[in-house]
Amino acid sequence: MNFGCHEIVGRDRSRSNGGVSFALLILVGLGVGVTTVLFGFGGGFVTVPVITLVGTALGGDAVRVATATSALVMLVNAIVATAATPRPVLARLSGRWRLFALLALGGAVGAVASRFAPVALLTWGFVAYVALTIADLVIRPGFIRPLSGRAIDDEGSRPGGVPDGFGLPIGTVAAFLGVGGSVMTVPMMRRAGADMHVAAALANPLTLVIVLPALIVSLCTSGALPDAQGLVGSVDVVSALALLLGSIPVVILLRRRPPRIPDRVHSWTYVALLVAAAATVAVVG
């Protein structure tokens, strides 16, 4: 394995785009922008299934490339979304440096681990993780169904709703599977009494902290990936660019003019998106 940062490799187009055009990826990017603002996903649960489809010619390595590429898309979207978030909302994470450090460490560990993991583990790990999360969100109170007032008070004693000690496992799992961490942090903040709007907004800076070290690892490692035009390390920069061209304007627009969505509808839509993402990866994988 070469751990030196790679330039774009491959002289010819040895990789098919799976029938997904650059223009279509820009349209998909619009959806990525919506999920970034409304659900805090940053793109992970959209980009992993989509880039898996794009890289079908890579065979089993398509999921590995999708995981790495999602880190780039999530990082840029998280930066833009965080910069546009009102300061009073971001103040809920003030002083959480220990949490940030552990999230970043976990992001690096998870990204390195994903370079060595079997592709089947990345694929079905993604599916299993999302399926368990969906069950948790629907069955346990606090996400769809409200907690009791006492439970909210107890959870709310932690600013931001995410305990510091959870930073390492959240960062590791998020980077390993390429999901950004919002699927863990948003439910935690919901159960701390935050509405979906606030929980999604705070998920963006937390995602940023996770995916930055994960992206550095992905750019500098390609593992056993075959040479393919458009790959930098294991990141598909062409697909990432298309997705970002679509997502960034949407992120800016929705941060300036946030839509009014009933909280219950907002939370159920979050669950529905997780179902769609898991189903897509299961079918493609």
Précis, in short:
The protein is an all-alpha fold. Helix content is 67%, strand content 1%. The protein is globular and about 50 Å long.
What do you see in this structure?
This protein has helices at 22-39, 44-54, 61-83, 87-90, 97-116, 119-139, 149-155, 167-177, 182-191, 196-220, 237-256, 263-284, and strands at residues 231-232, 235-236. With 285 residues, the protein is an all-alpha fold. It has one domain (22-284). Strands 1-2 form a two-stranded antiparallel ribbon. The longest helix is centred in the last third of the chain and has 25 residues, at 196-220. It is built from 12 helices and 2 strands, in the order H-H-H-H-H-H-H-H-H-H-E-E-H-H. The two termini are 24 Å apart.
Strand order of the largest sheet: 1-2
For the residues shown, what is the average pLDDT?
79
Summing up helix and strand content along with how strands pair, one would put the structural category as: mainly alpha
> Rounded to an integer, what's the Rg over CA atoms?
18 Å
Q: Mind describing the biggest β-sheet?
A: 2 strands, antiparallel
As a percent range, the share of strand residues is under 5%
Question: How helix-rich are the residues, as a percent range?
Answer: 55-70%
Shape: globular
Treating each run of at least 4 consecutive H or I residues as one helix, how many helices?
A: 12
Strand count: 2
SSE order, as H and E?
Answer: HHHHHHHHHHEEHH
Contiguous uncertain segments of 5+ residues: 1-19, 150-157
